[in-house]
Structures are given as structure tokens and as C-alpha cells.
Write a structure and sequence with these properties.
- It is built from 8 helices and 21 strands.
- It is mainly β.
- It has a single domain (2-341), classed as Beta-galactosidase, Chain A, domain 5, CATH 2.70.98.10.
- The strands form 3 sheets. Strands 6, 7, 8, 9, 11, 13, 14, 16, 17, 20 and 21 form an 11-stranded antiparallel sheet that branches.
- Strand 16 and strand 17 (248-253) form a beta hairpin.
- The chain is globular.
Length: 343
């Protein structure tokens, strides 16, 4: 049983039913979220690493909440010049409170250092609620699980945005890379590729991307890890991925909110944190790492030059079924050209 296996890495794992599966909240794994359909996990979870964590970054999997940006002058992943995941994310475990059978909250207080030498004290909060998608799954003859999350970082002290910025950033990790197609839908259908994709990360992701008529496709896998941002400029509506080997379709959605979006790129950001506005991101772990991430990003609220908060509202939908059934679901529920995604 999946519950017994999950308890081997987190005895306090908390499960909530959703349609054909479960949404699992893990305070013992630093606040990660996982899902299962039937008795099979839909997310990556490295049980060996979870059982035997290292002193370095424990890349266990699931849906994690991080503070962005990753790189640049305000980077939380380069406090001392070398990439790291700080203890507030990597080691500190939250407290979990169940509000109902379908809703729970995880909270913790963390301290994060940025390259400016500023220690930023934050309240980390995740409110997770299951979604009933039984109408969809019945209509298309597929299985599914879904949830909504409200993630936030609220400063515990006053910080000028000259000294510190933060965005709530949800990184949802799945197994596989080669043969998987990631995609994004955007409302500004005539947008050029540079209006759609932020390629200011590393490598050349554009060689694996095509974009036209409000849809981009990102062929995952290949020899090199790659990452992209999905820009506010083109009015992004959703991202997703289709894994034919697992008969799995994933959709992630977040609405564009009021506030200041930033460039989350993992580099020195020579043009600065405000050089672009990322609403989503996709990480391709390539053949090397054999996992990928679908990521949603919040703006930050700034008032009178002070950092106030960053709040992210996201929804995740995971379906499993035959290719023809998933094509029909994509066409009718998400108005996507399914033949480009599921071939």
C-alpha cells in the first residue's frame, strides 16, 4: 500500500482524497506535496534519499515551495557565490494543521540569506485543498487527481526592495525526460518566441521549442539540462506535460495577479531581476537527471519601497488514460490542439 511506503519516509504524512487518488502533504519532507492515482505515485519521490538525507541538497521530488529568485543580485540559491539550497527549505520541517477532510495548512518560519548579506526572515505557508474532477474523469473515461494550493512568503520584518525581494515559487517534479512533451498555452497568439520564452537561464532551450498560434511545445530530454521561463508578455494561461510511457497528462494553472513579477533565472542576471516577468517555468533535467519540473511563480507586493508579501495561487490536474481519451480531454476542457501534444 502506498500509505505504508510513504510512512517509511514521513510517519506524519497527511493524505486527502481526490477523485481517483490522494493528495499527500509531507511535513517530514520539508512541506512537499505528492499525489497518487490508485496505489501509484504520480510524482517523483526518491525514497532512498528521503530515508538517508545528505548534508547537501536533498532532491527528493514532489511539489516544493521555494523563495525566488534563484540567481542574480537577490538570489537565495547563491548566498555565498556557489549554488546551494538553504536550510530553511532543505531541512526545516513545517507544522501541519488539518482544517477539514479536504484542506490542510503547513507553516514554518525560515531565515534566508541573499548575496547582499541580508538575512530575510519569512513565514512560509502552504494551504492545500483537494479538487473534485469526477465530472471530467467520468466524461472522458480517465483517472485523475487534482488540488489547489495557496503558497505564500510573508516577511517577518521590514525590508526595502533595495535590499531584498522574494517571489513564491512552486516547483513540481515528475519522473522522466526523454520522449516527454511539455507545453504552454498563451492568449496572445501572434506573440513571437522571445515574447513567449525567457531563455536567460543556461544552454540553448530554443532548439527544442516550437511556438505558434498560442501554443509552445518543449521536447524534454536530450543531453543537456535546460530551463525556461514563460513570460507575462504573452498572457500565459497554463503549462503542462504529456508522458506517453506513463499515460499521464499534467496541467498546471495560475492566474496573472497584481504585483511585481521578476526574472527567476539561475544565473548572474546581468540585466537584473526586473529584466523579464516570469509567470511559469519548466525545467528539463535531460537524460542526465531524468526528471522534469512544472513551476508556477507569484508576483510580489511592494508598498512604498517595502517588501510586503508574495502569494501564489496554483491548481494542478493530473490525468491517466489512453491517448485518444486524453486528446479529447485536452481539446474540450483546455481548448488545446491535442494532436500537437499527443502523437
Amino acid at each position: 500500500m502506498i500509505l505504508e511506503k510513504l510512512k517509511t519516509v514521513d510517519p506524519n504524512i497527511h493524505g486527502m482524497a481526490s477523485t481517483d487518488g490522494m493528495v499527500w502533504l509531507s511535513p517530514g519532507l520539508q512541506g512537499r506535496i505528492f499525489c497518487s492515482i490508485g496505489d501509484e505515485l504520480t510524482h517523483k519521490l526518491d525514497f532512498d534519499l528521503a530515508s538517508n538525507p545528505t548534508d547537501g541538497f536533498n532532491n527528493i521530488g514532489g511539489n516544493s515551495l521555494w523563495p525566488g529568485p534563484e540567481g542574480g543580485a537577490f538570489a537565495y540559491n547563491y548566498p555565498h557565490g556557489e549554488w546551494t539550497v538553504q536550510d530553511g527549505i532543505n531541512k526545516v520541517c513545517p507544522a501541519l494543521t488539518a482544517e477539514s477532510a479536504a484542506c490542510a495548512v503547513m507553516t514554518k518560519d525560515i531565515s534566508m540569506l541573499n548575496p547582499k548579506g541580508v538575512t530575510v526572515d519569512l513565514e512560509y505557508r502552504r494551504k492545500v485543498q483537494t479538487l473534485d474532477i469526477s465530472g471530467q474523469t467520468a466524461a472522458y473515461g480517465v483517472k485523475g487527481v487534482a488540488y489547489t494550493e495557496c503558497d505564500s512568503f510573508i516577511p517577518k520584518k521590514d525590508y526595502s526592495v533595495e535590499d531584498a525581494i522574494v517571489c513564491a515559487w512552486s516547483l513540481e517534479q515528475f519522473n522522466g525526460a526523454e520522449g516527454i512533451t511539455a507545453f504552454g498555452k498563451y492568449a496572445k497568439k501572434d506573440a513571437g518566441i522571445k515574447q513567449v520564452i525567457n531563455d536567460d537561464f543556461y544552454g540553448d532551450p530554443l532548439v527544442r521549442i516550437t511556438a505558434a498560434d498560442g501554443l509552445f511545445l518543449f521536447r524534454l530530454g536530450g543531453p543537456c539540462r535546460l530551463q525556461i521561463g514563460f513570460k507575462k508578455d504573452c498572457v500565459p494561461e497554463l503549462i503542462g506535460a504529456y508522458d506517453a510511457s506513463r499515460n499521464q497528462l499534467i496541467i498546471r494553472k495560475t492566474a496573472i495577479e497584481e504585483g511585481t513579477y521578476i526574472n527567476i533565472a539561475d544565473n548572474d542576471q546581468k540585466n537584473g531581476a526586473y529584466s523579464t516577468e516570469d509567470v511559469y517555468s519548466i525545467f528539463n533535467g535531460s537524460q542526465e537527471l531524468n526528471f522534469f519540473e512544472l513551476e508556477t511563480i507569484a508576483p510580489m507586493t511592494v508598498r512604498n519601497g517595502k517588501l510586503i508579501r508574495s502569494v501564489l495561487n496554483s491548481r494542478t490536474f493530473i490525468y491517466r488514460g489512453g491517448a485518444d481519451r486524453l486528446r479529447a480531454l485536452l481539446e474540450k476542457e483546455y481548448q488545446l490542439n491535442s494532436k500537437e501534444i499527443i502523437k
